[in-house]
UniProtKB/TrEMBL annotation:
Transmembrane segments: none annotated. The keyword Signal applies. Residues 1-29 form the signal peptide. Keywords: Signal. It comes from the Bacteria. The keyword Signal applies. Pfam families: FG-GAP_3. This is Uncharacterized protein.
Length: 632
């Protein structure tokens, strides 16, 4: 990062992308792409240029209109959910579907009518406005039709996790519907499991044990390889492993399955990294920001901070002009700025949900109020207190973050030690830690993970999003799978988020243009824009691939989304993937276009799809580097 003081511009030049900030307004210009990296694309992915908070997997992926190209549902947290229609490899401008505070999203045809349904969990206003989930039917004409509640409505809650899955192996879609626990429930479980009755109704069947706080993040997997789905729950507290009993009930087997207590987990994805036919698990781990945590880069004179749940106070020497970038806070303090000794209201133009960029001259912000009871009048208080110093104080309940430019110095902050990720190999009855052995010991604060064969060599790779430090561009991590020698970190891949003040959150993969190379969609918490990165890796171009489009069975009694497992045999290699499996924390997409790298193999391949009710479909494919439909 380099600051050009005369022009008041902060520029970050990153091989394929130049991002310049004029007092917080980002301007992007694409440069010549690298011949062996990912390239951020703009023409194919028009986006809203606002620093909005994101939620969970960015985005949820499905071919909603069933035209052969995957569409996107993007969730700007607290603002609304939009759809991005994919027109033969080029996305339309996002279109608003529903406004407000939305969390987990899941997609599937739960009533077998041939259309996909989208279910969205709604926030509960920190417990003051509990609501149930909202369901839409999506037609092939790109219409979203709001559906009425079920005969017995889904439970009211502070909605979080929503995931369709076939938990009783009968071929239809059941539902996990988990809440952030409400105080009014007095400890009763809000981890609800709904059974599909086969007539278009989801009926409450059972619950999982109650959890604390934000501990309802969930991975649906099969860690004991018995073709019955298991659950891994994480977030606050240690990871819990629940064995599926086949009847939508689950047994806690954490002590029997996990090698030790694993805490501070931010994301989990299943990966058969050794291609031995069972699913291993990759855990990202990291410390959340502490209250009052601060970051400072003396070279660029950039300061960033995080605060929540009470009073805060930051003082720093700057000079005559205070430049604030991407100040983020939630309702009711998203627009409450009090300036100077008089604490006059600073009027923001336009909407205030996105990050705020403010420039203040000291003569318009002189002094600071005496004996202020911030708790009685919550918000941001900003004033020039003399000798080049400015003070930013106040009281916030929800998280608040921001960037300040031109800071001369700031006391060193001692940050908590970073945590390492964990790779667990599936040994049949137990998961074994092979993190160091496989060269994926990543000691940093990471937030999300996704799995794909980015170089098409026939072995799945790992992409990790970092939390970041607010004041620098945030570069993701890619570990390429080198088969028996383990993983190797890919340098200069250019999957980088340049927005200052943003916190890395989650990542998803998609072959948006159907060229057989897996691309990446990235979003951030605490502000930022959506990013689409096109896969330009030379290895991915040189190696062969096959894309399996998984449809329903010929009987029509089961859908692919229930968790169909796809097996591809090519030369001496066997790979497996599961339809709909992602590293999402709260959501469940329906990406039924499964990309398999084949390396240099040119022989015909064998494909086998095993559906959750036991039905199988098999096909021999001689034409490589193409998309093949299995099922209907």
């Amino acid at each position: 990062m380099k600051q050009l003081k005369k022009l008041n511009i902060t520029c970050c030049k990153l091989a394929v992308l130049v991002s310049c900030t004029f007092f917080g307004t980002s301007i992007n210009a694409q440069t010549t792409p690298s011949n062996n990296a990912f390239t951020e694309v703009y023409e194919e992915f028009p986006r809203q240029e606002k620093n909005l908070r994101k939620w969970d997997a960015p985005p949820v992926i499905a071919d909603l209109d069933q035209d052969g190209y995957q569409d996107l549902l993007i969730n700007d947290h607290g603002y609304g959910i939009q759809v991005c229609w994919n027109n033969n490899g080029k996305f339309e401008k996002p279109y608003d579907l529903i406004m407000g505070d939305l969390h987990g999203v899941s997609i599937g045809d739960f009533d077998f009518d041939g259309n996909l349904e989208v279910i969205m969990s709604r926030g509960g206003g920190s417990g003051s406005n509990a609501r149930n989930s909202k369901t839409f039917r999506v037609t092939k004409k790109r219409e979203f039709i709001a559906l009425p509640d079920f005969n017995v409505p889904l439970e009211l809650m502070r909605g979080r996790t929503l995931q369709f899955f076939d938990g009783d192996n009968d071929g239809d879609l059941d539902l996990l519907n988990f809440a952030f626990p409400g105080a009014e429930k007095k400890g009763a479980s809000e981890n609800y499991i709904y059974k599909n009755d086969g007539n278009g109704e989801l009926i409450l069947h059972s619950t999982l044990p109650a959890i604390k706080s934000n501990g309802q993040k969930t991975l649906v997997t099969d860690f004991n390889n018995d073709a019955i789905f298991d659950l891994v729950m994480y977030g606050v507290g240690n990871v819990k492993a629940f064995k599926g009993n086949g009847d939508l009930t689950f047994t806690d087997v954490s002590k029997q399955v996990l090698p030790y207590n694993i805490g501070d987990v931010t994301g989990i994805a299943e990966i058969d990294f050794d291609n031995d036919g069972d699913f291993d698990l990759y855990f990202t781990r990291g410390n959340a920001f502490e209250i009052g945590e601060a970051f400072f880069d003396k070279e660029t004179k950039t300061f960033g901070f995080f605060t929540k749940r009470g009073e805060f106070n930051f003082e720093m020497p700057i000079g005559d002009v205070l430049q604030l970038e991407n100040f983020q806070s939630q309702w009711p303090n998203n627009d409450t700025f009090y300036i100077g000794e008089a604490s006059y209201d600073y009027k923001l133009e336009g909407e205030t949900h996105s990050g705020k960029n403010i420039s203040l001259v000291n003569s318009n912000a002189l002094g600071f109020p005496d004996n202020t009871n911030f708790k009685n009048k919550t918000g941001w208080y900003i004033g020039y207190i003399g000798n080049k110093k400015w003070r930013i104080s106040g009281y916030l309940w929800a998280p608040g973050t921001g960037i300040v430019h031109g800071v001369e110095n700031y006391p060193k902050y001692t940050h908590p030690e970073a945590l390492n990720d964990v790779l667990l190999e599936n040994k049949g009855r137990k998961l074994v830690d092979v993190t160091k052995e496989k060269n994926v010991f990543e000691a940093s604060n990471n937030e999300g993970v996704t799995i794909a064969d980015f170089d098409n060599n026939g072995f799945p790779d790992i992409l990790i999003t970092k939390r970041g430090d607010l004041i620098h561009a945030n570069e993701s991590v890619i570990f390429l799978n080198k088969e028996k020698s383990g993983f190797e970190k890919l340098s200069n891949h250019q999957i980088i988020s340049t927005e200052l003040g943003a916190i890395g959150m989650a990542v998803e993969t998609i072959d948006y243009n159907q060229d057989g190379k897996t691309d990446v969609v990235l979003g951030n918490e605490r502000g930022g824009v959506w990013h689409l990165f096109k896969n330009e890796l030379k290895e991915a171009k040189d190696n062969n691939f096959i894309t399996i489009e998984v449809g329903s069975t010929n009987s029509g009694k089961v859908t692919a989304l229930g968790g169909a497992k796809v097996e591809v045999k090519s030369c001496n290699n066997i790979q497996i993937q599961r339809v709909g499996s992602t590293g999402a924390q709260y959501s469940q997409g329906f990406n039924n276009f499964m990309n398999f790298g084949l390396g240099k193999c040119t022989e015909a391949i064998k494909v086998k799809v095993t559906y959750t009710n036991g039905e199988t479909l098999e096909k021999v494919v001689a034409r490589l580097n193409s998309k093949v439909l299995i099922g209907k």
